[in-house]
Amino acid sequence: MKIAVDAMGGDHAPKAIVEGVLRARDATEFRDTTFILFGDEAQIKPLISDGHGIEIRHTTEVITGEDEPVRSVRRKKQASMVLAAQAVKDHEADAFFSCGNTGAVLACGIFVVGRIKGIERPGLMPTMPTITNDAGFNLLDAGANASNKPEHLHEYAKMGAFYAEDVRGVQNPKIGLLNNGTEYDKGDDVHKATYQLLKDDPDLNFVGNVEATTILQGSADVVVTDGFTGNAVLKTIEGTAGAMMTLLKDNLMHSGTKVKIGAALSKQAFKGVKAKFDTSRYGGAVLLGCNAPVVKSHGASDNRAVYYAMLQIHEMVRKDTVTKFKDYFAK
């Protein structure tokens, strides 16, 4: 197994990327894996004391967060991200990973790695936490497409259900359509038409419309939505979780002695809450619908987040999830 890694993408590249890859390389699960790091060799090589399982492909360009996504992919042919994706297209690697410019990663996935035949719009799908269990839920689309047709949302439901069952091991996953109410006739024309498509699909365990207030409570294993709304929901959850932890910490640190003693006694409980909303342990966001696993992690990812993304990719490649996708949609 070979994983092509954009070592220059992200706020803490290449250090965090390399450290995460090395942590994965040294784990038992990755004995059969080679990591191909694309990036500036002068920056990457000093971070690696033991080159076992690592290949470095020197690149001369980097796509930054300020670059226009599609234009940069077309013009910066020697960029670490583009060459990593090209390695997958050329069958030199089995999967592509990056923490870089989201739009550029999507462009590489769609235009370089390529779409699965029968999939009109690949969707970006993270796994998010729930307060009821550790399984979490999948959200898609989370930003690959600003607008969608009912047929696209129907595709997302089928892809999300397949991923939840094959990779996450969720049996007969519950599919919910994100809407502004649970009634069947809620929402605009797109959501009403989507509701009917999902309801009429015998292969889906469709539980109806779900509201944003219940998705963290596990109302569905896969939450389907358009990319604009999905991205807003994703960032709202991440922002709220971070803000609440900061607010709680500030209040405890600046309160009286009794409160501080109570906080010390409740330390394990606070750690549990923090761990519950630690999205890093779920891996990155998968661009579902591409010819190979394409995974994008947050730009601010640390080595731990990169490690968990490698675990996620390894599981997808090991289970040959994309080939199963292709067979399923070919039918």
UniProtKB/TrEMBL annotation:
Enzyme's top EC category: transferase
Q: Provide the catalytic activity annotation.
A: a fatty acyl-[ACP] + phosphate = an acyl phosphate + holo-[ACP]
SUPFAM superfamilies tied to this protein: Isocitrate/Isopropylmalate dehydrogenase-like
* Principal subcellular localisation of the protein: cytoplasm
UniProt keyword annotation of Acyltransferase present: yes
One GO molecular-function entry: phosphate:acyl-[acyl carrier protein] acyltransferase activity
Keywords of this entry: Acyltransferase, Cytoplasm, Lipid biosynthesis, Lipid metabolism, Phospholipid biosynthesis, Phospholipid metabolism, Transferase
Enumerate the subcellular locations listed in this protein's record, separating them with semicolons.
Cytoplasm
- Entry EC no(s): 2.3.1.274
- Which pathway does the database say it acts in? Lipid metabolism; phospholipid metabolism
Complex formation = Homodimer. Probably interacts with PlsY.
Task: Give the UniProt family note.
Answer: Belongs to the PlsX family.
Q: What does this protein do?
A: Catalyzes the reversible formation of acyl-phosphate (acyl-PO(4)) from acyl-[acyl-carrier-protein] (acyl-ACP). This enzyme utilizes acyl-ACP as fatty acyl donor, but not acyl-CoA.
Q: Which NCBIfam families match?
A: plsX
Tell me the protein's name: Phosphate acyltransferase
